[in-house]
Specification:
Blueprint: H1 20-23, H2 31-42, H3 49-78, H4 83-91, H5 107-112
The structure holds flavin-adenine dinucleotide.
Domain FAD-binding: 2-44
Protein name: FAD-binding domain-containing protein
Pfam families: FAD_binding_3
């Protein structure tokens, strides 16, 4: 299936789309998360729906575009002839800090130097091409 990125539409009063209907993309772990975020953003101002829909749509178009492109790149990687090697490389942590002078990598120091919540580079990183 071919997925399009950058889908937009002209605002129509009182109606909009969320979830896959708004931004169908390859299933690489983002669609349901983005659908829930759509719903949460749209529900921020239920008393005044039309401005809420406009605000949601503009924010969603901007938010989704890079995610849809990243999903397309990951799908292309998974379907390529070199998929196995590429996926191993994608999930293999890369050292962030320069190795100590001795050349020995201190795994404990490397992990504690990482800001809380920040993944080790290589795990779920953005694809560059
Ligand atoms: C194999 C696979 C793996 C995935 N893995 C992930 C993941 O790990 N993480 C992630 O975030 N996302 C993942 N996704 C994407 C995620 O499933 C979708 O993005 C998400 O379900 C979209 O939710 P939705 O409510 O927009 O649409 P849907 O879940 O498709 O819900 C639409 C509903 O509308 C119903 N419907 C359709 N037409 C009509 C009609 N005419 N009348 C009444 N009802 C109708 C359908 O039966 C369906 O129940 C994956 C998708 C696939 C296919």
């Amino acid at each position: 299936m071919q997925h399009r990125t950058g889908t937009r539409w002209t605002h129509q009063p009182g109606i909009t789309l969320i979830g896959d209907a708004a931004h169908l993309m390859p299933p690489v772990g983002e669609g349901a998360n983005q659908a829930m975020l759509d719903a949460a953003e749209l529900a921020t101002n239920p008393a005044d729906p039309d401005p809420a829909i406009r605000t949601y749509e503009e924010a969603m178009f901007t938010r989704i575009h890079p995610i849809a492109e990243m999903s397309a790149r990951v799908q292309a990687m998974m379907l390529s002839p070199t998929a196995a090697d590429d996926i191993i490389r994608f999930f293999t942590p890369q050292p962030i800090e320069p190795a100590p002078a001795s050349g020995r990598v201190d795994e404990g120091a490397r992990r504690s130097a990482r800001p809380p919540g920040k993944p080790i580079a290589g795990g779920r990183r953005r694809m560059s091409g």
